[in-house]
Amino acid sequence: QERLVESGGGLVQPGGSLRLSCTTSGFNLDNYAVGWFRQVRGEDREGREGLACVSNIRGSLRTSYEGPAKGRFTISRDVANSIVYLQMNNLTREDEATYLCAEEGTYHCPERVSPWRFRVWGQGTQVTVPS
């Protein structure tokens, strides 16, 4: 059974950094794309904002980013330990949210990191940035 568990969230001061982890099981990271998202309120998929996606295309690591993540966030993965990371730098109050990872169901990231393309989700980890 495919499963994703997020960790690494917490309280961080403005300008600080955090590295989130998405520990996966039940599938091979080399065969499936994984994305990171965030949600400010609610639980519906519609409210989730896509941040980044990572996949393996014929042995080459491919990454893609959406607006909020470009230039500040980096997605990476540790295949041996089945973990996908999201390194977040220069955090601001606007980054406060619940962060979730999800598996896309195919080996490549979609053209846009849209939550509607991802099928298996973790429960999320909270990131708090005080004003």
Helices and strands, with pairings:
Blueprint: E1 3-7, E2 10-11, E3 18-25, E4 34-39, E5 48-57, E6 60-65, E7 73-78, E8 83-88, E9 97-103, E10 120-121, E11 125-128
Parallel strand pairs: 2-11
Antiparallel strand pairs: 1-3, 3-8, 4-5, 4-9, 5-6, 7-8, 9-10, 9-11
Description:
- With about 130 residues, the chain is an all-beta fold.
- It is about 0% helix and about 45% strand.
- Strands 2, 4, 5, 6, 9, 10 and 11 form a seven-stranded mixed beta sheet that branches. It has a four-stranded antiparallel beta sheet with strand order 1-3-8-7, with no helix packed on it.
- Strand 4 and strand 5 (about 50-55) form a beta hairpin.
- It is globular.
- It starts with a strand and ends with a strand.
Summarize the structure.
This protein is an all-beta fold and 131 residues long. The chain is 0% helix and 47% strand. The strands form two sheets. Strands 2, 4, 5, 6, 9, 10 and 11 form a seven-stranded mixed β-sheet that branches. Strands 1-3-8-7 form a four-stranded antiparallel β-sheet, with no helix packed on it.
Summarize this structure as a short list of keywords or feature phrases.
single chain; 131 residues; mainly beta; 7-stranded mixed sheet; 4-stranded antiparallel sheet; 11 strands; globular
Largest sheet: 7 strands, mixed
Query: How large, in whole angstroms, is the Cα Rg?
Result: 14 Å
Helix content: under 10%
Structural class: mainly beta
Distance between the termini: 40 Å
**Number of DSSP E strands:** 11
Q: Write the element-wise H/E pattern from the N-terminal end onward.
A: EEEEEEEEEEE
Could you tell me the mean pLDDT? 95
What percent strand?
over 45%
- The general outline is globular
Low-confidence stretches: none
Number of alpha- plus pi-helical segments: 0
